[in-house]
Amino acid sequence: MRPFKPVDFIRLATFTVSPQRSHKGFSPLFSKSTPEIYKPIAKDHLLQRLEWVDAQLQNYPFLMGESYTVADIYLFNVTNWARLVGPKLTDFANLIALRARFGRTAFGARSHAG
C-alpha cells in the first residue's frame, strides 16, 4: 500500500495539472490571454509535475498500488489535454502505460469517443 491517499493525487492533479487553475498545469496553454513567451515556461512546469507523477508509477500499475482509484481516472482525463496543447507524453513510460491500461477498458473507450 502506498503512503498516499487517493485524495493526495487528486489534489496534485487539481492544483498542478488541471486546466481549471489559472496559473498552473494546462491552463496557461489553453488560454488565449497567456503571452506566447510564457507558454514554454508553463510547459516546463507541467513537465516537472508529470515527471513526478511518472516516477510514482514506476513500481505500481496505478497511483495507489495494484488497483485503480478515482485519482487514476482523473489523471487519465487530465492528461488527455496534452493531445490538444502539449506537452508530448512520450518521455513518460509509466504514465503512458497507465493510460494504455485505461484505454483498454470501457471507460477509456467512452472517454475517447468524444
Keywords:
7 helices; about 110 residues; mainly alpha; elongated; single chain; about 0% strand; Glutathione S-transferase Yfyf (Class Pi), Chain A, domain 2
Structural class: mainly alpha
Mean pLDDT score: 78
Q: What percent strand?
A: under 5%
The number of E-state strands comes to 0
N-to-C span = 34 Å
Helix content: 55-70%
Q: Can you put this structure into words, describing what you see?
A:
The chain has 114 residues and is mainly alpha-helical. The chain is 59% helix and 0% strand. The protein has a single domain (6-113), classed as Glutathione S-transferase Yfyf (Class Pi), Chain A, domain 2. The protein contains seven helices and no strands. The longest helix has 18 residues, at 39-56. The radius of gyration is 14 Å and the shape is elongated. The termini are far apart. Residues 19-23 have low confidence and may be disordered.
